[in-house]
Amino acid sequence: MAKHAMLRMPGIHKIGELGEGHNQFWVLDKDGLITKGRKGLDPAVVRFARGFGPEEVEDLHEGASLVEVVKKVKPHVLLGLSGVGGIFTEEVLKAMKESDSPCPAIFAMSNPTTKAECTPEDVFKHVGENAVFASGSPFSNVTLSNGRKGYANQANNMYLFPGIGLGALLSGARHISDGMLHAASECLASYITDDAIRKGILFPSISSIRHITARVGAAVARAAVDEDLAEGCSDVDPRELRSMSESDTVDYVARKMWYPVYSPLVNDK
What we know:
Layout: H1 2-7, E1 28-29, E2 32-33, H2 66-73, E3 77-80, H3 90-96, E4 105-108, H4 120-126, E5 132-135, E6 142-143, E7 149-150, E8 152-154, H5 161-171, H6 178-189, H7 194-199, H8 209-226, H9 238-243, H10 246-256
Parallel strand pairs: 3-4, 4-5, 5-8
Antiparallel strand pairs: 1-2, 6-7
Helix pairs in contact: 2-3, 5-8, 6-8, 8-10
């Protein structure tokens, strides 16, 4: 899916263009940096293994440590999916301060809180107050030295999973494709303004989640139709789904949403 996400970036028009020169990922596991020299390489990681192309970084060898990679690559984003608490050490975070990005992004995605790769306090202290932070576990926002707020964004699946499930169900999709997931992600991203990103805010207010879910669901359903995966659901067949405009699809999804409204079980006297 990561390759397909890159495909949608400006200037890249086909998968064939995403060769060595467009591998912008440096993937590490418990044995360090993964290269094509690794024996018994997992097929799922092969496309991201570093090789010998023009975009390679000199002196980064098989098994290089995280701090070595960060110091030499100067990445814009550090993504933690390790399940190892505190693995983004002070040395690693200070190396991220030298990133080529004016707003380095650190995503400590492992759960629970004790397994998070770092805390927002660590990030804003060692990377700088211009950093962007998100985590899989909930953390409190941080008060920065200038009185501004350092946002501890929680990258929670509540923004996407309900809409993905509803869109897949109402379209009668045979399976959930990368394109459907990407449509959901792009829909959510469209709700974030450049001003919010400059402040370090990555997700819209929770107060708008129902509104967003309806539109995420519609985006997923329309992607399923576009990819000929939709078989329809209940009284709406694929042909009718295809004839719906974008606003019609949103209305259709919104009408099918469940609201937790219950009849009282005890009558007041």
